[in-house]
Design brief:
By secondary structure, this protein is of the alpha+beta class. The protein contains twelve helices and twelve strands. Helix 5 crosses helix 9 and helix 6 crosses helix 8. The longest helix is centred in the middle third of the chain and has 25 residues. The radius of gyration is 22 Å and the shape is globular. It starts with 8 loop residues before the first helix and ends in a 5-residue tail after the last helix.
């Protein structure tokens, strides 16, 4: 708060807009009106970004770094895409409402309790019970699947996937359906306007989400506490869940997965706390450390920097850093 930087012209002229949020602090709609509510839809929740921001007189402020510019802004004005979750029909905002009602409130008091437990507990103490693992799993999976890095790719792939499904169905039922029905199946295509709704319905179906949660919660969980967060904090982005293949070191989704025993997952929860999830075979070797706190030492700076580098590499557009780090990074232009 109170920090003012002399940035380049295009940064200084950014419009300061005030956003209005609902009681949970998770919905966002700049210049909200009755005609166009929830226009700017966050792909990473405001309530999550708040943990990396500094409270000012009228807004929470955060440092933002893009490919070709950097600036300070309110968390309400970053990390969104206009109409991103909109679908056709009368209930066009149903997925924006879903994330606001079912997912984003979990970033409030439930996550407060977990972070407080990590911060105040001694090193190596077990922090996470099964319920806390399931809560964090739900947050992590939802975040990993709600971003363009997943959704946009699946929407583009859907026509070819649908053609393959039809081909396999007809092959398995050869001679069992009439020529007329076979022709109708061949020419039928899922309308492009419906694809996003179908994918969001699939990944957010309760049974499928529960399956993902069970898979993740069965792995080895470590809660990293970073006591050097004032100088070397965990940072975040508009695509903050990092999955790394332990063999190839790839962060490509093709090389990683929730059920992949070669995948390690990192998710920063604040500048001082990050969750790490390791494959089940590693858990089998050291089950006693599952769910425990690990305080990072000075020798672990490389781990922090590695996580931060991967988060920056896979951003959609924006990397977010605490104000005190932003000021240090760009103090030469003050």
């Amino acid at each position: 708060a109170g920090i003012r930087l002399r940035l380049q012209n295009h940064d200084r002229k950014r419009v300061r807009r005030r956003a209005y949020e609902n009681v949970s602090g998770t919905y966002r709609g700049n210049l909200m009106s009755k005609k166009k509510p929830f226009t700017n839809q966050h792909i990473v929740p405001v309530s999550y970004l708040r943990r990396f921001a500094t409270k000012g007189n009228s807004a929470y402020r955060i440092g933002v770094i893009c490919a070709d510019k950097h600036f300070i802004d309110s968390i309400d004005n970053v990390g969104y895409i206009k109409h991103y979750y909109d679908i056709e029909g009368e209930d066009s905002k149903k997925w924006e409402h879903y994330y606001g009602k079912e997912i984003e409130p979990l970033y409030g008091k439930p996550l407060d309790g977990i972070i407080a437990g990590v911060t105040l507990s001694p090193n190596r103490q077990v922090i996470l019970d099964e319920n806390k693992k399931k809560l964090l799993s739900k947050l992590l999976i939802s975040q990993w699947l709600r971003v363009p890095d997943f959704l946009d790719v699946k929407i583009r792939q859907m026509p070819s996937m649908f053609r393959q499904i039809k081909k396999e169905f007809l092959a398995q039922n050869k001679g069992k359906v009439s020529k007329e029905i076979e022709h109708k199946i061949k020419v039928f295509d899922y309308p492009s306007s419906k694809r996003k709704d179908l994918i969001l319905s699939t990944i957010n179906a309760e049974d499928r989400l529960s399956m993902y949660v069970d898979v993740l919660s069965s792995k080895l969980w470590i809660m990293y506490y970073n006591p050097y967060y004032t100088k070397v904090p965990f940072i975040t982005s508009d695509n903050p869940v990092v999955a790394i293949n332990i063999d190839s070191k790839s962060i490509n989704r093709k090389d990683n997965g929730i059920n992949n025993n070669k995948t390690v997952i990192f998710f920063p929860l604040s500048p001082s706390v990050a969750v790490a999830i390791y494959p089940t075979p590693i858990k089998n070797l050291a089950p006693q450390i599952d769910g425990g706190k690990r305080i990072l030492s000075e020798t672990n700076h490389k781990l922090i920097l590695n996580i931060n580098t991967r988060i920056a590499e896979q951003r959609y557009k924006e990397v977010f850093v605490p104000l005190y780090i932003y000021e240090e990074l760009f103090k030469e232009i003050r």
